[in-house]
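Q: I'm writing up a methods section and want to include an example of the input and output format. Could you take the sequence below and give the corresponding predicted structure tokens, formatted cleanly so I can copy it straight into the document?
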Amino acid sequence: MFADGSLNPKSCWRFMSLWSLFVQAVGLSALFRNLALFNPEGYGGWRRDSVREVDFVTGCFLLIRRELWDRLGGFDERFFMYAEEADLCWRARLIGARPLFTPDATIIHHGGGSETARASKIEKLFAGRATFIDKHWAGPKKTAALRLLELHCLTRAAGYAVLARVSRAEQHRKAASEWKRVWQARRKWRSGYDVSAMPTLRHG
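A: Here is the clean output for your methods example:
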């Protein structure tokens, strides 16, 4: 739940696909959040009111049996802060485990509390997704996925720049500046996390 008691739908997700990356890049996921076709990663239309098998559970509230954790070797230290739970559940599913969501377990999640700088957070989110893609995908699929991540960033940077010019609203100007920064840093996050540069922040 959010701090105000309303439902936070970001407790579980489907794994990304080329289709999900495309609809996010062109903005369809934002326009049609409640449609599974255009918001596949977010399980669009499901109210989180039933027990259900899911692709992966968000790391802020994830329970796992110790023997499975040990068998998987825990989180992969190539990931920092974002996408580590997606990788964990991907590997768990490969050996027959099935992550589940239940509405009976509740937690208040103050989203963004550990990352107040929005541009920096988005860069890490993209780096996490790029690391996942690099680890689990290959060939043309991997190349296309990374290009779609870049397109996602470019459409947001350009879109907010136009919106800021038209509306002259401070919130749009700020968003345009943040996405411009993320776009300028694309060569860095497109390569995924550089764990060696963050030795004191690694899992373990």
